[in-house]
Amino acid sequence: MVAHTVTRRKLLLSASALGVASSAPYARLVEPQWLDTTYHRIELTSKPLSRRIRVLHLSDLHASSFVSMSFLERAIEMGLAWWPDLICLTGDFITCNDSCDLGYYRQILRRLSGAAPAFACLGNHDGGLWAGTHRGNSSSSEVVQLLKDSGITLLQNELQPVRFGRQPLQLAGLGDLWSGDAMPAVAYRQYKELPTILLAHNPDTKDVAGECPWDLQLSGHTHGGQVRLLLDGGAFVPVRDKRYLAGLGKWRGRWIYVTRGLGNIRGVRFCCRPELSLLELV
Protein backbone atom coordinates (compact mmCIF):
# COMPACT_ATOMS: atom_id res chain seq x y z
CA MET A 1 0.00 0.00 0.00
CA VAL A 2 1.29 3.45 -0.92
CA ALA A 3 1.45 5.77 2.06
CA HIS A 4 0.03 9.26 1.79
CA THR A 5 0.55 12.01 4.29
CA VAL A 6 -1.14 15.33 4.97
CA THR A 7 0.62 17.88 7.13
CA ARG A 8 -1.21 19.65 9.94
CA ARG A 9 -0.78 22.96 8.13
CA LYS A 10 -2.32 21.58 4.92
CA LEU A 11 -5.16 20.05 6.87
CA LEU A 12 -5.94 23.36 8.58
CA LEU A 13 -5.73 25.27 5.29
CA SER A 14 -8.03 22.77 3.60
CA ALA A 15 -10.55 22.95 6.44
CA SER A 16 -10.42 26.76 6.35
CA ALA A 17 -10.94 26.90 2.60
CA LEU A 18 -13.87 24.49 2.75
CA GLY A 19 -15.33 26.50 5.62
CA VAL A 20 -15.09 29.75 3.68
CA ALA A 21 -16.59 28.22 0.55
CA SER A 22 -19.36 26.45 2.47
CA SER A 23 -20.61 29.77 3.79
CA ALA A 24 -20.92 31.24 0.27
CA PRO A 25 -24.21 30.56 -1.56
CA TYR A 26 -22.40 30.66 -4.93
CA ALA A 27 -20.05 27.85 -3.90
CA ARG A 28 -22.97 25.66 -2.81
CA LEU A 29 -25.79 26.56 -5.18
CA VAL A 30 -24.17 27.66 -8.42
CA GLU A 31 -20.75 26.26 -9.18
CA PRO A 32 -21.35 22.58 -8.22
CA GLN A 33 -24.14 22.57 -10.86
CA TRP A 34 -22.27 24.59 -13.51
CA LEU A 35 -20.82 21.97 -15.82
CA ASP A 36 -17.73 22.76 -17.84
CA THR A 37 -17.03 20.86 -21.06
CA THR A 38 -13.43 20.45 -22.19
CA TYR A 39 -11.96 19.09 -25.41
CA HIS A 40 -8.44 17.86 -26.09
CA ARG A 41 -6.88 16.39 -29.21
CA ILE A 42 -4.22 13.83 -28.24
CA GLU A 43 -1.71 12.08 -30.47
CA LEU A 44 -0.80 8.75 -28.92
CA THR A 45 2.90 8.11 -28.65
CA SER A 46 3.39 4.42 -29.53
CA LYS A 47 1.71 3.99 -32.90
CA PRO A 48 -0.37 6.26 -35.13
CA LEU A 49 -4.06 5.38 -35.21
CA SER A 50 -5.80 4.52 -38.47
CA ARG A 51 -8.87 6.51 -37.37
CA ARG A 52 -9.87 9.05 -34.76
CA ILE A 53 -11.44 7.77 -31.56
CA ARG A 54 -13.62 10.01 -29.42
CA VAL A 55 -13.34 9.19 -25.71
CA LEU A 56 -15.76 10.52 -23.10
CA HIS A 57 -13.95 10.60 -19.75
CA LEU A 58 -16.01 10.82 -16.54
CA SER A 59 -14.81 10.54 -12.97
CA ASP A 60 -15.74 11.21 -9.36
CA LEU A 61 -19.48 11.11 -9.80
CA HIS A 62 -19.81 10.86 -6.00
CA ALA A 63 -23.53 10.08 -6.00
CA SER A 64 -24.69 11.22 -2.56
CA SER A 65 -26.93 13.66 -0.71
CA PHE A 66 -24.68 16.42 -2.12
CA VAL A 67 -24.62 15.19 -5.73
CA SER A 68 -28.09 14.47 -7.03
CA MET A 69 -29.12 11.86 -9.56
CA SER A 70 -30.75 14.58 -11.67
CA PHE A 71 -27.40 16.38 -11.92
CA LEU A 72 -25.57 13.19 -12.94
CA GLU A 73 -28.30 12.40 -15.46
CA ARG A 74 -27.95 15.86 -17.01
CA ALA A 75 -24.17 15.49 -17.18
CA ILE A 76 -24.42 12.10 -18.88
CA GLU A 77 -26.91 13.47 -21.42
CA MET A 78 -24.47 16.27 -22.25
CA GLY A 79 -21.60 13.82 -22.63
CA LEU A 80 -23.54 11.47 -24.90
CA ALA A 81 -24.46 14.40 -27.16
CA TRP A 82 -20.83 14.22 -28.35
CA TRP A 83 -21.45 10.72 -29.75
CA PRO A 84 -18.33 9.16 -28.16
CA ASP A 85 -16.81 5.96 -29.53
CA LEU A 86 -15.57 4.94 -26.08
CA ILE A 87 -16.53 5.84 -22.51
CA CYS A 88 -14.05 5.65 -19.62
CA LEU A 89 -15.01 6.13 -15.98
CA THR A 90 -12.22 6.45 -13.43
CA GLY A 91 -13.76 5.76 -10.06
CA ASP A 92 -15.50 7.21 -7.00
CA PHE A 93 -19.02 6.38 -8.11
CA ILE A 94 -20.26 6.93 -4.55
CA THR A 95 -19.19 8.83 -1.45
CA CYS A 96 -18.30 6.22 1.13
CA ASN A 97 -20.11 7.74 4.12
CA ASP A 98 -23.28 8.70 2.24
CA SER A 99 -26.10 6.87 0.48
CA CYS A 100 -27.86 7.06 -2.89
CA ASP A 101 -30.67 5.45 -4.86
CA LEU A 102 -28.83 2.57 -6.53
CA GLY A 103 -31.83 1.60 -8.66
CA TYR A 104 -32.03 5.06 -10.19
CA TYR A 105 -28.26 5.13 -10.50
CA ARG A 106 -28.27 1.93 -12.56
CA GLN A 107 -30.80 3.43 -14.97
CA ILE A 108 -28.61 6.48 -15.49
CA LEU A 109 -25.38 4.52 -15.97
CA ARG A 110 -27.06 2.13 -18.43
CA ARG A 111 -27.40 5.06 -20.80
CA LEU A 112 -23.63 5.13 -21.08
CA SER A 113 -23.17 1.45 -21.86
CA GLY A 114 -26.12 1.62 -24.26
CA ALA A 115 -24.40 4.33 -26.29
CA ALA A 116 -20.79 3.06 -26.55
CA PRO A 117 -18.41 0.52 -25.00
CA ALA A 118 -17.98 1.66 -21.38
CA PHE A 119 -15.14 0.69 -19.07
CA ALA A 120 -14.33 1.65 -15.48
CA CYS A 121 -11.89 1.34 -12.62
CA LEU A 122 -12.64 1.81 -8.92
CA GLY A 123 -11.77 4.73 -6.66
CA ASN A 124 -10.94 5.00 -2.98
CA HIS A 125 -14.58 5.74 -2.02
CA ASP A 126 -15.94 2.68 -3.83
CA GLY A 127 -15.06 0.20 -1.07
CA GLY A 128 -11.85 -1.39 0.09
CA LEU A 129 -9.17 -0.81 2.66
CA TRP A 130 -9.24 2.99 2.52
CA ALA A 131 -13.04 3.26 2.51
CA GLY A 132 -13.30 0.76 5.35
CA THR A 133 -11.26 3.06 7.58
CA HIS A 134 -13.20 6.18 6.57
CA ARG A 135 -16.75 5.18 7.53
CA GLY A 136 -17.26 3.40 4.22
CA ASN A 137 -17.57 -0.20 3.11
CA SER A 138 -14.52 -2.44 3.34
CA SER A 139 -15.93 -4.38 0.38
CA SER A 140 -16.40 -2.95 -3.11
CA SER A 141 -19.06 -5.55 -3.95
CA GLU A 142 -21.89 -2.99 -4.00
CA VAL A 143 -20.21 -0.80 -6.61
CA VAL A 144 -18.98 -3.83 -8.56
CA GLN A 145 -22.58 -5.07 -8.81
CA LEU A 146 -23.79 -1.58 -9.74
CA LEU A 147 -21.40 -1.47 -12.68
CA LYS A 148 -22.23 -5.01 -13.76
CA ASP A 149 -25.96 -4.29 -13.71
CA SER A 150 -25.30 -1.10 -15.68
CA GLY A 151 -23.46 -2.93 -18.47
CA ILE A 152 -20.16 -1.20 -17.66
CA THR A 153 -17.06 -3.40 -17.79
CA LEU A 154 -14.97 -3.09 -14.64
CA LEU A 155 -11.23 -3.47 -15.16
CA GLN A 156 -9.74 -4.39 -11.80
CA ASN A 157 -6.08 -5.07 -12.61
CA GLU A 158 -7.09 -6.31 -16.02
CA LEU A 159 -6.46 -5.69 -19.71
CA GLN A 160 -9.21 -5.52 -22.31
CA PRO A 161 -8.69 -5.26 -26.07
CA VAL A 162 -11.30 -3.31 -28.00
CA ARG A 163 -11.63 -2.60 -31.71
CA PHE A 164 -13.01 0.37 -33.61
CA GLY A 165 -13.39 -0.73 -37.20
CA ARG A 166 -9.89 -1.85 -38.22
CA GLN A 167 -8.24 0.03 -35.36
CA PRO A 168 -7.40 -2.11 -32.29
CA LEU A 169 -6.90 -0.49 -28.90
CA GLN A 170 -6.15 -1.82 -25.44
CA LEU A 171 -7.51 -0.69 -22.09
CA ALA A 172 -5.74 -1.40 -18.82
CA GLY A 173 -7.55 -0.82 -15.53
CA LEU A 174 -5.87 -0.77 -12.12
CA GLY A 175 -7.29 -1.03 -8.61
CA ASP A 176 -7.25 1.90 -6.20
CA LEU A 177 -3.82 3.09 -5.12
CA TRP A 178 -4.76 4.14 -1.57
CA SER A 179 -6.38 0.78 -0.88
CA GLY A 180 -3.23 -1.04 -1.99
CA ASP A 181 -5.13 -2.60 -4.89
CA ALA A 182 -3.13 -1.22 -7.83
CA MET A 183 -1.33 -4.25 -9.26
CA PRO A 184 0.15 -3.46 -12.67
CA ALA A 185 2.14 -6.72 -12.81
CA VAL A 186 -1.14 -8.64 -12.57
CA ALA A 187 -2.92 -6.45 -15.10
CA TYR A 188 -0.16 -6.65 -17.70
CA ARG A 189 0.30 -10.42 -17.74
CA GLN A 190 -1.54 -10.61 -21.08
CA TYR A 191 -0.23 -7.40 -22.58
CA LYS A 192 -0.19 -7.03 -26.37
CA GLU A 193 1.69 -4.39 -28.30
CA LEU A 194 -1.25 -2.11 -28.99
CA PRO A 195 -2.00 1.55 -28.27
CA THR A 196 -2.94 1.45 -24.58
CA ILE A 197 -5.11 3.62 -22.35
CA LEU A 198 -4.56 3.18 -18.61
CA LEU A 199 -7.52 3.76 -16.26
CA ALA A 200 -6.33 4.63 -12.76
CA HIS A 201 -8.37 6.66 -10.28
CA ASN A 202 -5.44 8.38 -8.60
CA PRO A 203 -2.93 10.15 -10.90
CA ASP A 204 -0.13 9.11 -8.51
CA THR A 205 -0.70 5.56 -9.80
CA LYS A 206 1.69 6.45 -12.61
CA ASP A 207 4.54 5.94 -10.14
CA VAL A 208 3.71 2.26 -9.63
CA ALA A 209 2.75 1.65 -13.27
CA GLY A 210 5.59 3.58 -14.85
CA GLU A 211 7.46 0.50 -16.04
CA CYS A 212 4.39 -0.76 -17.89
CA PRO A 213 3.71 0.40 -21.46
CA TRP A 214 0.81 2.82 -21.88
CA ASP A 215 0.18 5.89 -24.02
CA LEU A 216 -2.45 7.76 -22.05
CA GLN A 217 -3.42 7.56 -18.38
CA LEU A 218 -6.91 8.73 -17.44
CA SER A 219 -7.46 9.71 -13.80
CA GLY A 220 -9.63 11.76 -11.47
CA HIS A 221 -9.49 11.80 -7.67
CA THR A 222 -8.27 15.38 -7.24
CA HIS A 223 -11.52 17.22 -8.10
CA GLY A 224 -9.09 19.77 -9.55
CA GLY A 225 -8.64 21.07 -6.01
CA GLN A 226 -12.44 21.58 -5.62
CA VAL A 227 -12.09 24.88 -3.70
CA ARG A 228 -9.41 27.16 -5.09
CA LEU A 229 -8.60 30.38 -3.25
CA LEU A 230 -6.19 32.89 -4.79
CA LEU A 231 -3.14 30.99 -6.06
CA ASP A 232 -3.32 27.90 -3.86
CA GLY A 233 -3.71 24.43 -5.30
CA GLY A 234 -7.12 23.97 -3.72
CA ALA A 235 -8.67 22.67 -0.53
CA PHE A 236 -8.78 19.14 -1.91
CA VAL A 237 -5.35 18.07 -3.16
CA PRO A 238 -5.02 14.38 -2.21
CA VAL A 239 -1.95 13.62 -4.34
CA ARG A 240 1.79 13.67 -3.84
CA ASP A 241 2.66 14.88 -7.33
CA LYS A 242 0.80 18.19 -7.60
CA ARG A 243 1.88 18.72 -11.20
CA TYR A 244 -1.04 16.50 -12.16
CA LEU A 245 -3.92 18.17 -10.37
CA ALA A 246 -6.09 18.81 -13.44
CA GLY A 247 -5.90 18.82 -17.21
CA LEU A 248 -3.55 17.32 -19.77
CA GLY A 249 0.15 16.85 -19.10
CA LYS A 250 3.17 14.88 -20.23
CA TRP A 251 5.07 12.38 -18.07
CA ARG A 252 8.08 10.46 -19.36
CA GLY A 253 6.96 11.00 -22.94
CA ARG A 254 3.42 9.80 -22.25
CA TRP A 255 0.15 11.61 -21.66
CA ILE A 256 -1.82 11.94 -18.43
CA TYR A 257 -5.27 13.48 -18.31
CA VAL A 258 -6.76 14.34 -14.90
CA THR A 259 -10.37 15.47 -14.94
CA ARG A 260 -11.86 17.73 -12.27
CA GLY A 261 -14.72 15.23 -12.06
CA LEU A 262 -18.47 15.65 -11.87
CA GLY A 263 -19.21 15.44 -8.16
CA ASN A 264 -17.72 16.81 -4.99
CA ILE A 265 -17.26 16.29 -1.27
CA ARG A 266 -19.45 18.30 1.13
CA GLY A 267 -21.42 19.96 -1.65
CA VAL A 268 -19.11 22.84 -2.54
CA ARG A 269 -16.95 23.99 -5.44
CA PHE A 270 -15.23 27.33 -5.88
CA CYS A 271 -13.23 28.46 -8.94
CA CYS A 272 -13.16 24.80 -9.96
CA ARG A 273 -16.23 23.78 -11.97
CA PRO A 274 -17.29 20.14 -12.48
CA GLU A 275 -15.99 18.78 -15.76
CA LEU A 276 -17.03 16.66 -18.72
CA SER A 277 -14.02 15.71 -20.84
CA LEU A 278 -13.97 14.71 -24.49
CA LEU A 279 -10.61 13.44 -25.70
CA GLU A 280 -10.07 12.89 -29.40
CA LEU A 281 -7.31 10.36 -30.03
CA VAL A 282 -5.61 10.88 -33.39
Q: Low-confidence spans: pLDDT under 50, at least 5 residues?
A: 1-13
- CATH homology group: Metallo-dependent phosphatases
Distance between the termini: 36 Å
What is the CATH architecture annotation?
4-Layer Sandwich
Determine the mean pLDDT. Answer: 92
User: What is the strand arrangement across the widest sheet?
Assistant: 1-12-2-3-4-5
Work out the number of β strands: 12
Class inferred from helices and paired strands: alpha/beta
Strand content: 15-25%
The CATH first-level class comes to Alpha Beta
- Global geometry: globular
Helix and strand element order = HHEEHEHEHHEEEHEHEEEE
* CATH topological fold name: Purple Acid Phosphatase, chain A, domain 2
Largest sheet report: 6 strands, mixed
Helix percentage range: 10-25%
Q: What would you report as the Rg, rounded to the nearest angstrom?
A: 18 Å
- What is the tally of helical segments? 8
Report what the structure shows.
This protein is an alpha/beta fold and 282 residues long. It is globular. The chain has a single domain, classed as Purple Acid Phosphatase, chain A, domain 2 (4-Layer Sandwich). The chain is built from eight helices and twelve strands. It starts with 7 loop residues before the first helix and ends with a strand. Helix 3 runs parallel beside helix 4 (102-115). The strands form two sheets. It has a six-stranded mixed β-sheet with strand order 1-12-2-3-4-5, covered by helices on one side. The chain has a six-stranded mixed β-sheet with strand order 6-7-8-9-11-10.
